[in-house]
Amino acid sequence: MSNMTSTTFTSLSQHVLQHILQHVDQALVVVSAGDLVILELNQKSCELLGRTRDELLGQALSNIECALQDLFFWDDISANPPLSGQRIAESEWLTADGVALPIEKRVSAFQDGETHCWLIQAEDLTARRHIVQEQIQLASQLQSSLEATAEGILSVDLHGKVVNLNRRFSTMWGLSDDLIVTRDEAAMMAHVQTCLCDADSFTARLRYLEENPESESEDHLSLLDGRHFISVSKPEYLRDRLVGRVFSVRDISAMKKAENELVDALALAEQAVQDKSQMLDALKLSESRLRRLINSSMIGIFQGDMSGQLTLANDVLLDLLGVERHELLSKQVQWLQLTSPAYHQAHQAALKELQEHGHAEPFEAELSRSDGSKVPVMVGLAQLEGSRFEWVGFVLDLTAQKNADRVKAEFISVVSHELRTPLTSIRGALGLLEHGAAGNLSPKIQHLIQIAHRNSQRLGSLVNDLLDMEKLVSGKMEFKSEVIDLILLTQQAIESTSNYAAALEVSYRFQEPTQAARVQGDPQRVMQVFANLLSNAAKFSPKSAFVEVRLIKEQSLWRVEVEDRGAGIPLEFRDKIFSKFAQADGSSTRQQGGTGLGLNIAKSFVEKMGGEIGFESEVGKGSLFWFSLPSSTN
């Protein structure tokens, strides 16, 4: 192919062509008109494509062009070749590393004798598109700012064409959709004049502005419906060149009403100045009151952007962190720098929720003070109104609450331990009396003994749950890690719970897997999880029903499923099912007993052993609770 290239250019004006290729700043490629084969190119083209000249010479142009519209472009230019000038189109060239590079190509005919070629002048559009994108983004931001202002804005060019207007302007003047679509300044101003009490004065003002395009104006407009506007117009410049005019209209009806009520004798100009001063003072007073309110709050308040950088903070938060305001702002502190690494994931999840919903559910975190101490806090985030990129945060110091929780846990622990010994004795004594240790009792006394025995058993379960919860919270509960035969442990759990289920006229049905099931964990804690799920399933199953128990292998885990055919879990209760003291029916008349701690304890046990726990439920059809544990490698 390179020999053919040399032959092809033997008859061309080599000197002229080489001069063009070497002295043009942009990429140049010469292709044959018939088969679009690359005959010559300059160094700029090689740099643009990331390939050497030898690699590209003789290649088909289609090997570097990767835009679909190129097929139609070359078909059209072959059928209608430019006799003079250039044909311009956008395309994409494929670089050596596989990147599609946007370009603008200018194609002109090049002919020497009977040899007909296309000379392609290519310009990289990457920077230009980036600038266009930035301009679009800037225009969007400007339009958002325009819509956010409390004033009606109208921008026109020197030819009487409306360049832009915000919704506030169209609402203030009651512009129809047809007027907005036409973008005709004269038509809009004619409509405005129909709304005015003194249309002639406004018409004269517009005529003066047409004759003096660099003048500024400020007019008080009285409307037929009783409203009062202030209209300010200024010339608009672009790089010191006059390009149009901007009208800013503010509704001062409330101000005018107050003005008339306060002083009828004062001139309009003096009253306007006085009202402006009063408004400014009121704004300063309101700002001062708001600042005092924020700084006197018990809650730390701060503002940040989506990158996590803090921009504002109140005195409460600064005191909580032990830093000065100038330190916080001058260092450009990131929120994640103030929180312990363990809580970074929760913050990132909150930011994602913030972007999707405009607010995030409160979450607990731990702040690091300047002296190195840690402060437990509750954090809430909300998107700043009118901004997609800024948010405001609220920080509540949980130190007192955590101390109270610790005191409460210690109290519960002490009480529970003090109750366990006498309760064991009471339960044992009642059990002996119930089984005739004191001889035959009257039916009435026997019934009372049975009720007392059952209640003592329930109280014992509550004490045990409280003790387990206290150990989990304080981190005192120990977990073994050993290989467990899950099939055998499941059978033992079913056997130990079968009497309880039989009393409720419910049976268990265990589907044993065909392979051995061994997991890593603490057998005693796994048995407690089983006992809770099996007893719950029996408790909420209808009479004569079966509770299905299954073991399922899932990659490196074993999943245990316990499924009942009960009433299911109400929708409003599902997000609290694993919470402490959770009861779907929390009333004093609820049909099923329990402390409401079992599922919370089970969840803690499973997660401590490296597993997961969850449920699926359909109201009226039943519930399926499951937990998974890592498989044993032994």
Automatic annotation (TrEMBL):
It comes from the Bacteria. It is an enzyme of class 2 (transferase). Keywords: Kinase, Phosphoprotein, Transferase, Two-component regulatory system. Its EC number is 2.7.13.3. SMART domains: HATPase_c, HisKA, PAS. The keyword Kinase applies. Gene3D superfamilies: 1.10.287.130, Histidine kinase-like ATPase, C-terminal domain (3.30.565.10), PAS domain (3.30.450.20). Transmembrane segments: none annotated. It catalyses: ATP + protein L-histidine = ADP + protein N-phospho-L-histidine. Residues 414-633 form the Histidine kinase domain. It holds the Pfam family PAS_9. Residues 13-72, 138-191, 286-358 form the PAS domain. The keyword Mitochondrion does not apply. PANTHER family: HISTIDINE KINASE 1, TWO-COMPONENT HISTIDINE KINASE. This is histidine kinase.
